[in-house]
Specification:
48% of the residues lie in helices and 0% in strands. It is mainly α. It is a multi-pass membrane protein.
Length: 255
């Protein structure tokens, strides 16, 4: 496993807790016959600002909640695993800025649901992976666009009047902005060898000089230092040699 990415309990715990909280809010609403829709985003009104924080946790019916739960489980797990240092910030800022943009551009109606947050996650994971140029994150971006690429049509008006395309568009814009804001220099490849430097010149490299243009191994031409080492050594000091006979200091065997 890549050293940049570590599996922790939060990879499973964060999406499970978040989705469980959504279902808990919906259970309270139907159990005690509450109507939380007026707590959603109502654009360009002061009271509608409360929905910036509350709207992602409010859903109209069981089908609405179910359709948002599965993507949140997958995307939050991917966010926590591949972007652990930025995950909480992306989640918090994503909810806030997506809500603000929806409050500015939305129709005069209550906007509720976590679909805007889903678009934040899809947009952030896709654009961030492309920007880092890190092969694992680029692969994640391609996987996200294959699975959730069809969602892009729902950021345009009049595709489905029953959905909040403004919230989807706000989430998409927010995710892209967060991908530019959060930097991930730790994903850059660490240069370990000289040949990985952009200014590497193979002509000056000692190892590469041992190969010709066809890739064949060749011997280096003798250098001046090698020629000097091969020359004989002369000295001005006299050297006296003494010859010692080859006699072994051993006693002869007695008979």
């Amino acid at each position: 496993m890549d050293k940049h990415f570590k599996f922790t309990n939060s990879v499973v715990g964060l999406p499970l807790f978040f989705v469980f909280f959504l279902w808990f809010i919906y259970w309270i609403e139907i159990r005690f016959d509450f109507d939380f829709a007026p707590n959603g985003i109502f654009p360009r009104t002061f009271s509608g600002l409360q929905g910036v924080l509350f709207s992602p946790f409010i859903h109209s019916d069981m089908n609405h909640l179910y359709n948002n739960s599965l993507p949140l489980l997958v995307l939050l797990a991917a966010l926590q695993f591949f972007y652990a240092k930025q995950s909480i910030a992306v989640l918090s800022y994503g909810i806030f800025f997506c809500g603000i943009i929806t409050w500015i551009i939305g129709r005069d109606n209550y906007h509720i649901g976590a679909s805007g947050l889903i678009y934040v996650l899809v947009s952030f994971i896709f654009f961030k992976g492309i920007q880092t140029k890190y092969y694992r994150l680029v692969a994640l971006s391609l996987a996200v666009i294959i699975v959730y690429g069809g969602m892009v049509w729902f950021v345009f008006p009049k595709v489905d009047e029953a959905i909040s395309w403004e919230g989807h568009l706000a989430g998409f814009i927010t995710g892209f902005g967060l991908s530019l804001f959060f930097k991930t220099p730790e994903y850059k490849k660490i240069i370990k060898y000289d040949w990985e430097h952009p200014d590497f010149n193979p002509v000056e490299d000692k190892f590469m000089q041992r190969f010709d243009a066809n890739g064949n191994f060749v011997n280096l031409p003798p250098s001046e230092e090698a020629e000097e080492l091969l020359s004989y050594y002369s000295s001005d000091f006299p050297v006296d040699y003494k010859v010692i006979g080859n006699k072994k200091n051993e006693s002869k065997p007695e008979f």
